[in-house]
Amino acid sequence: MLDTSIDLSTPAGWLPLVFSLVMALAMLAYVILDGYDLGVGALLLKTDQNSERDAMIASIGPFWDANETWLVLGVGVLLVAFPLAHGIILGALYLPVALMLAGLTLRGVAFDFRVKAKAHHRPLWDSAFRFGSAAASWSQGYMLGQLISGFRSEAIGIAFSALIGVCLMGAYRLLGATWLIMKCEGELQLKAVKWAKASLLMTALGVLAISVASPLVSARIFDKWFSFPYLLLLFPIPLATVVLFGVIWRSLTRLPTRLASGNQYGAGVPFVSTVGIFLLAFYGLAYSLFPWLVVDRMTIWQGTSSIEALWVIFIGTVIVLPVIVGYTIYAYRVFWGKSTALSY
Amino acid sequence: MIELDPILLARVQFASNITFHILFPTLSIGLGWVLLFFKLRFRRTGEALWMDAYQFWVKVFALTFALGVVSGITMSFQFGTNWPGFMNTVGNVAGPLLAYEVLTAFFLEATMLGIMLFGRGKVSERVHTLATFLVAAGTTASAFWILALNSWMHTPAGFVMIDGKAHVTDWLAVIFNPSFPYRMSHMLLASGLTVSFLVAGLSAYRWLRGDRAGSVAAALRTGLFTAAALIPVQILVGDLHGLNTLQYQPAKLAAMEGIWETQKGVDAVLFAIPDAKAQTNHYEIAIPKLASFYLTHDWNGEVKGLKEFGDKAPPVAPVFFAFRIMVGVGLLMLAVSWFATWRIRRVAQMYSAPVWLYQALVGMTFSGWLALIAGWYVTEVGRQPWLVSGVLTTAQAASSVPAPHIALSLAMYLSLYCLLLAAYVSVLFYLARKAASGEGEDSNAKVTSKIGVAHA
Asked: Which residues in chain A are closer than 8 Å to B80, comparing Cβ atoms?
């Protein structure tokens, strides 16, 4: 399936491959990490108790800033390593990108304003946080839909993308709710179990819609999945996804009784399983799209910038990325376990 | 219907985003170091007032940082969407510099901010101080990379053009290009001054509302003395930067000074209305030969005029007026900070100082922003019509995004930014009032009891 003219033993062959991997991993990290805090944001107004809202915000407080930095890295790599694709992709997605940016801006600052502004403005900032989160989630899903459908502007492509937007909102809510189950206690935790259950359907629909649509859009993707021996080798992916959905459902059904008796055992299961679904979906998607940056139009080798720039960035990435991963893990360890009230 | 010019729209959109964005990193760079100073003073003296000052200003810092992050994310998208020609032509230079900024600065500051804000009590005091230092260092590193790139766009060096694309021959020459040392020092000093006046101004506001807490006096004097110390250095560095501009970007300098004809013994124009059509100044007030003296250090030195550069000269009026606003604010900063420093050089004098002194400081709270924006308009508009001096014009780099799309998103960004700016300024004063009335201290520095259990 690889273009035979690509020689992976030369830098011109493997550097674009490495950077597409870095970009994909950054986007994956972004979707999971910012996904749970966007989800928590979208759930904020589900409770009208200020103490519970504070607890929800407290659970994401130390992390959201760094979470969003993965988006800057992902888009940054797209910009510097694949400038041609950056122009095509973000040009085609100009309006959803603008909507996403407005949403991210609104929620990022509402997060701070809500505790600092006058008390009677607080519900306003809470709404800004909720709707900013929702707008960012939906537009990201819309962009994903556009990416899969090859940036078609016919009604069907737009409808599909809008649907994926709604599904991704559900999937982020699932991540957010299961994050809350893991990080909170008491009534809020029990509410989060209900929220998680309610988000499962949309998440499943999203995974299904993408799985059905991507082979239909491109005959090449169809062949990648539905030809021997790939069909057998790939079968574990959808199978594992179904199993994980089952695990989440079972866990969410059992948790209320267990949590009510003060037993926190297994409170992390729904979140970890949801992350598992994201990983599998991402893997499936990456398998479908590779090596195309723009489906059936531009490969990572066609879209790449000059190799000399990639070399310079590669050296920096090799040195710095492990350090970033290291102190990110350190930060998560500092705030490990049940979250505590924000205290600064 | 009026025909929308996509290039003009793209420029207005980019300018409004970057204008909004720059306000906040400028504050967080300086404020990060001020917070570290407060923290270190507390560690050394053990006096609670330094920690009180830290607690108040860290709230301002968090809010400022958040605004910087979100507006910065917007920038990372617009580099490509608004100016695709930029990356296509100079991507070999800009790409690595931007990538190094993300890798070495963004993650560091964002991650350490979590520990700095919420980690007290979870990590040792030493680690918390280290996190505070790393946040300040991260913001400064970020400024280093982005100013290296920006300076390179003004005075490109260390590259060759092959087939219309820039290829780097010497990275040190790229980073330490001719205008970089001046721009970097000028910008860091600007950040220090902006923060100094903010700290002094907001503290003066609390003082006027009867807040006599030790932390208020300490913060006010910290801000004031820093401002008084930095402003003469800034004037000197600004002058050196101007001489550097004369050498490398004479067209920009001619616009700043309002000089049309190349001549010897040039007058220093204090005020005028430049007329681009007639290529002359109206209502000019000037001091004979002074400009030649401070630009060339010779009363009869020759300075190139705007006519020399034809269509490669920047629009004169915005550069000319922005420059005067920047210098004017700078001189005002000098007068206010030196007078106030002399007037309240001892703590006891703060009680006898006149009310208007504090009012003046409150009035100067955001003076740094004004000078900052004016200064950036001087340098960025002054570079036009070039995006990268002598390499790429702004028009060549523009995108093919349809004008209505740009107009729609521009309207959305603008209304959002106006709203957020108003909210930011009013919340800062509200935080000060809340702290002054004493309710801020305990309501925010709360408990670390486990949440959720309490109301079971």
From this structure: 78-79, 83, 86-87, 90
Alpha helices of B155-210 — where are they, by DSSP H?
171-175, 180-208
Calpha distance A307→A290 (Å, rounded): 20
Tokens of A275: 């992350």
Tokens of B193: 């001054």
CA separation for the pair A27, A293 (Å, rounded): 14
A313: closest CA of chain B, how far (Å): 5
**Nearest to A146, CA basis, from A211, A67, A217, A198:** A217
**What is the Cα–Cα distance from B456 to B453, expressed in whole angstroms?**
5
Whether residue B110 is contained in a domain is answered as no
- Count: domains in chain B: 1
Check: CB of residue A176 under 8 Å from CB of residue A278.
no
- At what angle are helices B48-82 and B107-118 packed, to 10 degrees? 150
Q: Give whole-number Cα distances, A75 to B77, B313, B400, in Å.
A: 7, 35, 20
Angle, to 10 degrees, between the axis of helix A122-148 and the axis of helix A186-217? Answer: 20
Whether B421 is covered by a domain: the verdict is no
How far are the Cα atoms of A127, B3, B179, B244, B300 from residue B292, in angstroms, in the given order? 59, 44, 21, 15, 6
Taking the C-alpha atoms of residue B324 and residue B109, their distance in angstroms, rounded to an integer, is 35
Residues of chain B contacting residue A69, judged by C-beta atoms under 8 Å apart: 69, 102, 106-107, 110-111
Alpha-carbon radius of gyration of chain B: 24
Nearest to B453 among A87, A102, A185 (CB): A185
β partners of residue B275: B280
Q: Judge contact between A266 and A255, C-beta under 8 A.
A: yes
Chain B residues closer than 8 Å to A317 by CB = 99, 103
Angle ∠(B288,B293,B295) on CA atoms, nearest 5? 115
Angle, helices A94-116 vs B403-436, to 10°: value is 10
Residue B402 lies in a domain: no
User: Tokens 């519970």 — which residue?
Assistant: A52
Nearest to B454 by CA among A183, A179, A119, A187: A187
- Residues of B within 8 A of A331 (CB-CB) are 111-112, 114-115
For residue B324, give its domain range: 232-397
Calpha distance A40→A62 (Å, rounded): 14
pTM: 0.87
- Give the C-alpha separation, A342 to A54, whole Å: 8
CB atoms within 10 A of CB B154: 23
Structure tokens at B288: 């004979």
The answer to the question of residue B350 being in a domain is yes
Q: Which residues pair with A340 in a beta bridge?
A: B450
Pairing of β B386-388 and β B159-162:
unpaired
Helices (H), chain A: 11-43, 50-60, 64-81, 83-92, 94-116, 122-148, 155-183, 186-217, 219-225, 230-234, 236-260, 269-289, 307-334
ipTM confidence: 0.82
Among residues A115, A122, A144, A140, the alpha carbon closest in space to that of A38 is found at A140
What ranges do the domains of chain A cover? 16-326
One digit per residue, the tens of pLDDT, for chain A of length 344 reads 445 567 788 888 888 888 888 889 989 999 999 999 999 999 988 888 888 888 898 888 888 878 888 888 888 888 888 888 887 888 888 889 999 999 999 998 888 888 888 888 888 999 999 999 999 999 999 999 988 888 877 888 889 999 999 999 999 999 999 999 988 888 888 898 899 899 999 999 999 998 888 888 888 888 888 887 878 888 888 899 999 999 999 998 888 888 888 788 888 889 999 999 999 999 888 888 888 888 778 888 887 877 888 888 899 889 998 898 888 888 888 888 777 766 66
Distance from CA of B114 to the nearest CA of A (A): 4
How many angstroms from the chain centroid is the CA of residue A26? Answer: 10
